[in-house]
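Section 3.1: Structural characterization of target chains.
Under the original work plan, the team committed to producing a structural model for every single-chain target entering the pipeline before any wet-lab resources were allocated. The record below documents one such target. The sequence was received from the expression subgroup and is listed exactly as submitted; it comprises 469 residues.
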Amino acid sequence: MNELRHIVGGELIHGSGEMIEFVDPSTGRVSGRIREVSINQIDEAVRLSSTALADWRSSSIPERQRALDEFSQLIEQERIRLVDTEVSSVGKLRRDIDSELTGLIGQIRGFASDLATFPGIGADSDSDEIWEPKGVVASILPWNAPLNAAIRRAAVTIATGGATVIKGSEIAAASVLDIGRIVSQISVPAGVVNVVVGRGDPVGKYLVKHRDIAQISFSGSNETGRAIATTCAQLGRPSVIEAGGKNAQIVLGDTDLAEAAKSIVRGYTKSAGQICTTGSRLLVEERVHDDLMQLVGELTSQIRVGSAHDDMVDMGPLISSNHRNVVEGFVQRALSEGIQAIWGGEKGSGDGFTYLPTAFTDVPPSSELFTDEVFGPVLAVTRFQSPGEAIELANATRFGLAASVWSSDIDMARSIAESLDVGVCWINSYWAHDPVWSWVPRRQSGTGPLDFGIEALRAFMAPKRISTP
């Protein structure tokens, strides 16, 4: 098996640290290995990004648009390879990854369009207010969607005239390295996007505190996100943090239950629940609870769980044996509290790290199953009597990322949505998304806009006012 390499200054380099092995979640077998990057190599990556930034920040809008177009074209050309790598890396289904790539290509092209209407950007701007890249950004990526995150970080870097050192997760980063290789082929200075792989400690911690890093972009756990935000505050360094959610799907009794049930099942089982916007809480009006749960249970029973390499499967594995133990721990603690599991609650069969879709009913707001992110296919169901109670329950966590409301009364649904302390709320759908959208997580879900749309461009740049006599 070939040893994977980091991409620094447009070149493939071997790390000089400990050997890291990537495991295919569907088989439990090693799918790749790489030596962790060393502290000296991180310094070199940051230095080369700084050098590239000095050149790329003065690029024109047409130059950036051309680079974004090349980036999107190469992703399209390598689509099959990228999908295959991601399937083996994280156990996501091929069709889900392919659909994500379609959206990501749209986002890249959306950035190119945004540049044409963004006043004060690029070397040819004559505006009194110009927008400049903040400096070299350290982009610390999660393991659950490395391909998606790497493309977004690279695209926003190219569009803003910036430079970044991307750190891929020690659990899953093969596709991140592919994106680094692709960027090295487009019309940007070598080092605009460097990709290294390493553990949070020491590599992540060192990047966060590096003297030549201007901003941190992080996606990952709530605990790590808070620690990074605290460090950045102490250093006076800006950060864009996405740190999870405990997202509510709210169902009122006047809605189409059959349609809602389809969305609910997709909302908690997609990617085996390993998405920050997973709809892991179901708040359902008392009078339709039994009917809705019967529909959700029937649809859940039809889900085929197994290897992500099997195109007939509906839900793949969890990322690792350790993470499956974490999910199982939540389930066992809920059972010990006397909360009723109405289906699931056990491992799947086969060599991979599968876990069956699981649902608990009458989950009290005091339970960790209600308040904490499980990051697995576990649905916490709670009844409510009135819209006001639904709002109170939905807001009764420390997170504020996403939610959905189901009702045939659109005015009522909108009124509830406006009362929810979240960054995005879908009405009568879940995960409906336009590539040009951006939203800002609230409370402990994070800070700063996610990497979509024109708001993401602003998050990675700083305005400067030039006053002419």
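The radius of gyration is 22 Å.
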